[in-house]
Design goal:
Helix content: 40-55%
Number of domains: 2
CATH class of the largest domain: Alpha Beta
Strand order of the largest sheet: 5-4-3-6-7-9-8
Distance between the termini: 33 Å
Number of helices: 14
CATH topology of the largest domain: Rossmann fold
Order of helices and strands: HEEHEHEHEHEHHHHHHHEHEHE
Largest sheet: 7 strands, mixed
Radius of gyration: 21 Å
Bound molecules: S-adenosylmethionine
Amino acid sequence: MRAQAERARCAPTPTSVSATLVYMPTEHQPVLAPELTALLAPQPGQTAVDCTFGAGGHARRIAAAIGPSGTLVCIDRDPAAEARFDRFAAAAPGRARFVGADYAAGLRTLRDEGIRPDMIYMDLGMSSMQVDAWERGFSYSYDAPLDMRMDTRQELSAADLVNEWPESGIAQALRRFGEERYASGIAREIVRRRPLQTTSDLVAAVKAGVPASARFGGGHPAKRTFQAIRIAVNGELDSLDDALPTAWGMLPVGGRFAAISFHSLEDRRVKRFLAERARGCICPPDLPVCACGREPEAELLTRRAAAPDAEEVAANPRSRSAHLRAAVKIAANAGGEA
Ligand SMILES: C[S@@+](CC[C@H](N)C(=O)[O-])C[C@H]1O[C@@H](n2cnc3c(N)ncnc32)[C@H](O)[C@@H]1O
């Protein structure tokens, strides 16, 4: 599901698919931008944290709304995002600062500096620019080294994972992060074919590891494997699990949080996290009176996730699987998260 979403959002545009591939980089179009801005309700002079700067599409809107007296802190772990940020900051109306880090670590740094933002938001997954840079190996459609690192300073790459992890660990990752039903067969083939050097080597291992019937129909047979390996290489779910309580803990009462996700593994986490904070009493239903005294900390701004309308999907097919959830903090943290 994730890979499908990503192919839809981020697939590079080959202008020739013969012997030499020539790419026409697609500009990253921010998804659900008016909806995100409306839910965050930015006001002049406020402070905002954008956890996933990318190409700054969402940041541009928020910066305009908080204006010259506002402060926008942008986080991204891809060093390529920093160069884009420099151009963004030069034109931003207010103060803008970049933190080049995983957002979980970046948020902790900001928290430790005592920053209490009025809003924090995340637009999860990869940018178009990352997938368009075919040499980074995110796409199964093009032959490239097995890299898949969002942070190119990170040591672990997809090549390390497929060539060094035990078969059981690879199978587990394919199951957990790709919901791949043929995980064992694919992991076996990966290990048998070592060393794998390119995305084509990995595609070939997947094709050999799935039954013939699974090679046709239902999308590319390698999409789940690529999704799973990318999530594992970048520790994407761990980062999200780590960042959510930190982000929430940093918000003052009245502060707003929003996240856009593109597959169910992430959306489920955001949904549960916010629902838990929006819940009051947690006493067993058979207790006649509340004994826990727990009050909700959050009011959900999206009872059901907001999704792009047909017009946005038509204009930007990459938005197709987006889910936007948001909440406002209505009481101080009960869990002492910050
Ligand atoms: C979907 S793009 C964001 C696009 C952006 N909202 C825009 O409008 O241009 C996701 C960005 O988040 C970054 N990213 C993903 N996971 C991250 C993490 N755990 N920590 C920091 N940055 C992350 C990626 O490097 C990528 O640049």
